[in-house]
Design goal:
Strand content: 15-25%
Radius of gyration: 16 Å
Mean pLDDT: 77
Order of helices and strands: HEEEEEEHH
Low-confidence stretches: 116-121, 123-133, 150-156
Largest sheet: 6 strands, antiparallel
Oligomer: single chain
Helix content: 25-40%
Structural class: alpha+beta
Shape: globular
Number of strands: 6
């Protein structure tokens, strides 16, 4: 049985970079081109957000052996670190394609998608209720919950 590589090969890195840039251009046209960097098993994505002078870190993907399977981590400015454990549970699994990683994290920093793309079922809360911030909960997650309340389908 072949062993799964620990890091993506150069072709995978190039393909994933192109996919991320194209997806952000389609879904977030008001943003400039994202900055995509690869280091070891990680792919880091930053973007120049409206009102910022410098690109802000947003997303870190951790390679899971396939160009379509990455662990999704969000940047927490309050602690200056990335975490895979603190995406709101309403987003679904914490692994997915690079495009799902962009969808799951960019909405928290850059707002809902614009253009021809719609908020996906994966990023739209279904049953999750917004609760008060709990002790130790990062402020970004609390604010994300507040933002996502506005995207809940009516009747929930």
């Amino acid at each position: 049985m072949d062993r799964v590589p620990d890091t993506p090969d150069p072709q995978t890195r190039t393909a994933v970079t192109r996919r991320i840039i194209a997806h952000v251009r389609r879904g977030q046209p008001r943003l400039s081109e994202p900055i995509v960097r690869h280091r070891g098993q990680f792919c880091y994505v930053s973007a120049l957000l409206p009102g910022y002078r410098e690109p802000a870190p947003i997303l870190r993907l951790r390679y899971q052996g396939s160009a379509d399977r990455w662990a999704i981590g969000i940047y927490l400015a309050s602690s200056d670190r990335y975490t895979e454990a603190e995406l709101p549970t309403s987003f679904g699994p914490k692994t997915g394609t690079p495009e799902e990683g962009v969808d799951d994290t960019f909405i928290l920093y850059a707002g809902p998608k614009t253009g021809h793309l719609q908020v996906s079922a994966r990023t739209r809360p279904q049953v999750t209720k917004v609760r008060n911030t709990s002790p130790g909960e990062p402020l970004e997650i609390y604010y994300a919950r507040q933002i996502l309340r506005h995207f809940q389908p009516s009747g929930n």
